[in-house]
From TrEMBL:
Keywords: Hydrolase, Protease, Repeat, Serine protease
PANTHER family: CELL WALL-ASSOCIATED PROTEASE (PTHR43399:SF4), SUBTILISIN-RELATED (PTHR43399)
InterPro entries from the UniProt entry: Bacillopeptidase_F, CarboxyPept-like_regulatory, Cell_wall/Cho-bd_repeat, Ig-like_fold, Peptidase_S8/S53_dom, Peptidase_S8/S53_dom_sf, Peptidase_S8/S53_subtilisin, Peptidase_S8_His-AS
Protein family per UniProt: Belongs to the peptidase S8 family.
Name this polypeptide is given: Peptidase S8
Source domain of life: Bacteria
Record domain Peptidase S8/S53: where: 213-498
GO molecular function, one term: serine-type endopeptidase activity
Residues covered by the Inhibitor I9 domain: 69-177
Length: 1141
């Protein structure tokens, strides 16, 4: 899909007109510049077909002196031959499957390394020379593809291209993470703490059988992972839950920044990993399909893109994990690698050798099929590379209704194969995100691929000897076929072979499958008519859709006894008990009866006024097939639906929506009170400079212009009340067109682009050469953050409206074009589109900020302050009586003076807007107490012995706030203060006073502490503390020296009175004192040496007899072992030091 160029009034000269006419006849030429401007991925294999050095690389050298580029060598390693040889050896020697896999991986790696070393050596030598000359900044070799990444000058690149062993010289492109998020709430599963996508593929049924991926390792090449996320920490291979130790070697690799500890600055990788293995230790947040598996990860993406060089480094690490020192471990390679990223559509084999070698090493390669984007609008053949390779297992995304996501790219592949290979849940997915949090509403094939990777882990747990080819066969064979109007047959290029089925896949290699087929029909006047329904197995939760043309279905299931249920919208379900037998076909037909219909009616009223509300829309959440109804002028409604239990939602602009649980059985009555939704003006948002410079239009209707709007930083949500547009009279025709449409979109798309349409198209009439204001209040458009105001051109040239643009001074980078259902950044030369938005904010509940709750006052006059929404009026209520009013200012604050009454005063702020109550603050209770000061909890409360220089804290509590307090310390007899003046106390918190007294160098017994408190009215009270103070003088301890006996041990003190430890030489003898200073006797081991200390503690030398055994200790006292010469004779001592005769 190509982007069209808009035309401006400033360009409409005769020459411009001729160019436009010619462009209509030759759209390819008209779009050439636009294709170059867009960020489409270029198929480098095609552009470099005739030359080794691609045109894109040469273009990069025109901009930069040094460029990073890739070298692709001609020679490829024959790993297939190496694998065959390995298998022959394994068969001959009857090796285990695990050993054979290790040998296979080792053979692959060895062959790759050998080929790369041999083929690259000449180029390596040349590059090393150029490094010394300053022409090469860096280079790195990759054996996995027999290639290199080089950062150097153009001349170096040209010379490399001249080497005969070099096949191509390519630019270092960037690839994208496939991610698209939505604001939708996460869907609920039928199982507690289990996400809907996990349940849909049948994983919980396998958990019950003890199959959860234990013993299998999954990997991801993504944006990283928060390794210590509660749902992922215990699943990280580098974490030892038993010891709490962490080792990131061989478990984590950062190809972008080289950081040694796993992290995720984009959230994508953490979300993907959660879908594979996530769950918390307590059983909550079961977001992962294989919670028993371990994960490792490579970070190759930053800011949603990753370079080819980084992705090659990542691929090589997956094949052979490497630690921080460069050591490699083939046996630490994962069993499956998830790739939720990709490039553009079409033939681009830059990564194909990687995928081949992963397969050859027994690593299952899962890839996301890719999402639609500005550069890939989807449709036939849009599936991205590397997912479109024959060797890649591509995964498309489905929603909760098993319908392929509109964002999911389609096949066939450029190799003529069905793509995607399979589908998995990938819409509205909840999983783990950084900061130990969870987030739902994620859309994308990025969310679908990890589901398949996890199921591969489940298969590997059951049979680790399965080959990659065999696993593909199992997944495809056991998938639930999916079709729709666009893809009526299975397999197809929308769903592949269908929805992945973990339960069937695993069961097929354990027990085998049986087939159940039949028809689901209804009886109408004696004839059987087909029904569009589902047939499900209740125990495994597996189901298939019936063919709406004939009601037929076919369901493959594991053998055994099960209950099968047929159901269809508007019909009563039916069940049958069946027995699936291996490789046998069973028949089970169902005839369903229509469910009776009933009605629910009632009246909708305003919760505040009690008045009936007209124009309220009511709908059933669980049944979108039932058309919504509206209330009449009396607030009455009637709605008819099939009998059952529903959630009835009532909504109207100006009111908060309300959900009510109802049961329709015959005729029922439900009245609802709606809470009004009050707003106040929030101003106008715009980014043009207000000066019309030109005007833009397209020749045909349907295209559009948009401006991205941002709320003030202190506002998280708003109501869009008006769209404001400036149109210029182009005067290209005598007939002036004024019709146009308005749309409002949120910013939930990729990189903040429009994601979900919130309102529109809304028909409007333009005012020419002035601002046109379109009232949007009736549409109750609530935005949470950034949003887009969009003008849709509905008329054709020459009567189409011209949207005014300024001269782009300054250019705000907020203007976008809307073409063929996609949004694109506008061109800088277009200027800023003159589109604005007016908003309003919901009236906030008022809050009283002063006084504080439970505050006590002595003065009856106080000032009540608080926060509320501008333009509202606040009525202050005291004990349910109005005592004052104030208009809230633009700053959102109010101040009301009031008088309190004796005792408690319950203050409430009531917000009013246009005479209507909008909300009430929480009550604040304050007290007016005119009593005398009271001192309580005076401390110290018990007697204390203190020494000079110590600090004594004196404190008490009181009903007095803001008083003055001090204390004195008095002698017990004279009652006069020892301190020369009163000591001031501080009020550390309301009603709490504290002071500190430093003990003087005197000796006093039972000194008295007296405190004094004076309130703001001059009332004074004193009180003595119960605790008395006794000041003691410290005793001088006699210094010990030499040998001293105490506590049953001898100690030695030096001249300073300090205990000596370790070896001590005293009067020509050696002694040993342990860490406590105690003298040691008998045998002593120090390090690896033994000594003997006699009863006096003295170290012995020479011959020693202990019992009947002789020992010999040298001059340093060390016990001897082995052969020793003593006085010219040789003696042998065993390892215990005992002399052996």
């Amino acid at each position: 899909m190509k982007r069209k160029k808009q035309y401006h009034m400033r360009l409409f000269s005769i020459v411009a007109a001729l160019i436009m006419v010619f462009s209509l006849l030759t759209p390819g030429l008209a779009n050439a510049e636009l294709i170059e401007r867009s960020s489409r991925y270029v198929n480098d294999s095609e552009t470099a077909a005739k030359e080794k050095m691609s045109n894109r690389l040469q273009a990069k050298f025109e901009k930069d002196e040094r460029v990073t580029f890739l070298i692709k060598f001609k020679e490829k390693a024959d790993t297939t031959k190496a694998i065959k040889q390995t298998k022959d050896i394994a068969k001959k020697e009857k090796l285990s499957a695990n050993k054979e896999k290790f040998m296979q991986r080792s053979a692959v790696v060895s062959e790759l390394k050998a080929t790369a070393h041999e083929e690259q050596q000449n180029v390596v030598k040349y590059l090393e020379q150029e490094v010394h000359r300053g022409n090469v900044e860096s280079f790195k070799s990759y054996f996995i593809v027999n290639g290199m990444a080089v950062t150097a000058t153009k001349e170096v690149a040209k010379k490399i291209a001249a080497f005969s062993e070099v096949e191509k010289v390519l630019p270092n492109e960037t690839r994208q993470l496939f991610v698209s998020t939505t604001k939708e709430n996460s869907l609920n599963s039928n199982l507690a703490n289990v996400e809907w996508n996990v349940e849909r593929v049948g994983a919980p049924a396998l958990w019950e059988k003890g199959i959860n991926g234990t013993g299998v390792v999954v990997a991801s090449i993504d944006s990283g992972v928060q390794w210590d996320h509660p749902a992922l920490k215990e699943k990280y291979r580098g974490y030892n839950a038993a010891t709490g130790e962490v080792n990131h070697d061989f478990n984590w690799f950062d190809a972008t920044a080289g950081r040694s500890v796993p992290y995720d600055d984009l959230a994508h990788g953490t979300h993907v990993t959660g879908t594979m293995v996530g769950s918390e230790p307590d059983g909550s947040n079961k977001i992962g399909i294989a919670p028993g598996a371990k994960w490792i990860a490579v970070k190759a993406f930053s800011e949603t893109s990753g370079s080819d060089a980084n992705l090659l480094a990542a691929a090589e690490w997956i094949l052979v994990p490497t630690d921080s020192k460069g050591n490699t471990r083939v046996d630490m390679a994962p069993d499956v690698v998830n790739n939720s990223w990709g490039g553009g559509p079409g033939l681009d084999e830059w990564y194909r050798d990687v995928v081949k070698e992963w397969r050859n090493a027994g690593i299952f390669p899962t890839f996301s099929a890719g999402n639609t984007s500005m550069t890939n609008n989807g449709g036939p053949g849009s599936v991205a590379n590397p997912a479109n390779y024959p060797e890649a297992f591509a995964v498309g995304a489905t929603d909760s209704n098993d319908i392929v996501g509109d964002f999911s790219l389609r096949g066939p592949s450029p190799y003529g194969e069905i793509k995607p290979d399979i589908s998995a849940p990938g819409a509205n997915i909840r999983s783990s995100i950084p900061h130990s949090d969870y987030e739902g509403g994620w859309d994308g094939t990025s969310m679908a691929a990890p589901a398949v990777s996890a199921i591969v882990a489940l298969l590997y747990e059951v049979d680790g000897s399965l080959s990659v080819d065999k696993i593909e066969e199992i997944l495809i064979k056991t998938a639930t076929p999916l079709t729709d109007k666009e893809y009526p047959e299975s397999p197809n290029d929308g769903y592949g072979y269908g929805l992945v089925n973990a339960y069937n896949a695993v069961s097929s290699i354990r027990e085998g499958l049986g087939i159940l087929e039949g028809k689901v029909v209804q009886t109408n006047e004696g004839s059987d008519l087909p029904i569009r329904g589902k047939v499900s197995v209740l125990e495994s939760r597996q189901y298939v859709n019936t063919n709406p043309e004939n009601g037929a279905y076919k369901l493959a299931h594991t053998i055994g006894n099960y209950t099968v249920q047929a159901e269809a919208y508007g019909y009563q379900s039916k069940q049958q008990s069946v027995t699936f037998e291996k490789d046998k076909v069973l028949q089970a037909d169902f005839t369903l009866k229509e469910i009776p219909k009933g009605t629910v009616s009632g009246v909708i009223t305003d919760e505040k006024s009690g008045e009936a509300v007209e124009g309220v829309t009511l709908l059933l959440i669980e049944d979108a097939n039932i058309a919504p109804v509206s209330t009449d002028k009396d607030g009455r409604y009637t709605l008819t639906a099939y009998e059952g239990t529903y959630t009835l939602r009532a909504m109207r602009s100006g009111y908060h929506s309300q959900d009510v649980k109802i049961t329709i059985n015959g005729d029922s009555h439900v009245d609802i009170d709606l809470k009004p939704f009050f707003t106040y003006p929030g101003g106008e948002i715009g980014y043009d400079n207000g000066i019309v410079d030109a005007a833009s239009m397209y020749f045909g209707g349907g295209a559009g212009w948009a401006v991205k709007m941002s709320l003030p930083k202190d506002k998280k949500s708003a109501i869009v009340t008006d769209g404001v547009f400036h149109f210029k009279n182009k005067k290209y025709s005598d007939t002036v067109g004024t019709e146009f449409s308005v749309e409002v979109w949120d910013a939930s798309g990729s990189n903040g682009l429009p994601g979900k349409k919130l309102a529109g198209p809304i028909t409007a009439e333009a005012v020419l050469d002035d601002w046109t204001v379109v009232d949007l209040r009736d549409y109750n458009i609530k935005v949470d953050g950034d949003f887009y105001m969009v003008y849709i051109q509905t008329l054709n040239y020459p009567i189409a409206l011209g949207l005014a643009t300024d001269n782009g001074n300054p250019y705000m980078e907020r203007s976008y074009q809307y073409l063929d259902g996609e949004f694109y950044p506008a061109f800088v030369e277009d200027g800023n589109y003159m589109i604005r938005a007016r908003i309003s904010y919901e009236v906030d509940t008022p809050v009283i900020t002063s006084p504080k709750h439970d505050e006590v006052f002595k003065d009856e006059n106080i000032m009540v302050e608080g926060n509320a929404s501008p333009t509202t009026t606040i009525k202050l209520m005291n004990n349910n009586k109005e005592v004052g009013t104030a208009k809230v200012g633009d700053d959102g604050k109010f101040t009301i003076p009031t008088k309190m009454t004796e005792g408690e005063n319950k203050l409430v702020a009531v917000s009013m807007l246009n005479g209507k109550l909008t909300g009430e603050s929480g009550p604040i209770t304050v007290s007016l107490i005119k009593e005398k000061p009271v001192i309580k909890d005076l401390k110290p409360a018990i007697d204390q012995n203190v020494f000079p220089g110590e600090k004594v804290e004196i404190s008490f509590q009181s009903n007095v706030i803001g008083g003055e307090a001090n204390f004195e310390v008095k002698l017990p007899a004279q009652k006069n203060a020892h301190s020369s003046s009163k000591n001031k106390m501080e009020e550390v918190e309301p009603g709490v006073y504290k002071g500190v007294w430093t003990v003087p160098d005197v000796k006093i017994k039972n000194a008295i502490i007296e405190v004094e408190l004076t309130d703001i009215d001059g009332n004074r009270v004193t009180q003595e503390a119960q605790g008395k103070l006794t000041i003691n003088q410290p005793e001088v301890e006699e210094v010990k020296t030499g040998w001293n006996f105490g506590n049953g041990n001898w100690y030695y003190y030096d001249k300073k009175g300090s205990k000596v430890t370790g070896w001590l030489k005293e009067r020509a003898k050696w002694y040993y004192l342990d860490k406590s200073g105690a003298m040691q006797t008998s045998w002593l081991k120090e390090g690896a040496k033994w000594y003997y200390l006699d009863k006096s503690g003295a170290m012995q030398t020479g011959w020693l007899k202990e019992g009947a055994k002789w020992y010999y200790l040298d001059k340093s006292g060390v016990m001897q072992t082995g052969w020793v010469t003593i006085s010219g004779k040789r003696y042998f001592f065993n390892s215990s030091g005992v002399w052996v005769e």
